[in-house]
């Protein structure tokens, strides 16, 4: 019966590198999953702003809504989501004025 020396097949360095590789992989998976969760939360918040904008300006056609967003983006030099938020706030101020 032949005896196989496992020590000759597997060295300490290879076991250590395998353990380090697994730990690095787990750490990378954890970080990526946290980043993806944060991104999904921010996407949900953005969707809420867009839904609110579409609800407030539902009577307008899509071209007019896009024009209004572009107007606010240029006026306030901001992004699309912020422009929608500002348009809704401005509309609410106008409706409460009377």
Helix content: over 70%
Number of separate domains: 1
Overall 3D form: rod-shaped
Low-confidence stretches: none
Largest sheet: none
What is the average per-residue confidence, as pLDDT, rounded to a whole number? Answer: 86
Strand content: under 5%
The DSSP helix count reads 4
First-last Cα distance = 99 Å
Number of strands: 0
Task: Please explain how this structure is put together.
This protein is mostly helical and about 100 residues long. It has one domain (about 10-95). Helices cover about 85% and strands about 0% of the residues. Helix 3 packs across helix 4 (about 80-95). The chain is rod-shaped, with a radius of gyration of 28 Å.
Brief synopsis:
This protein has helices at 6-9, 12-56, 62-76, 80-97.
What are the key terms here?
mainly alpha; 98 residues; rod-shaped
Give the helix/strand layout:
Elements: H1 6-9, H2 12-56, H3 62-76, H4 80-97
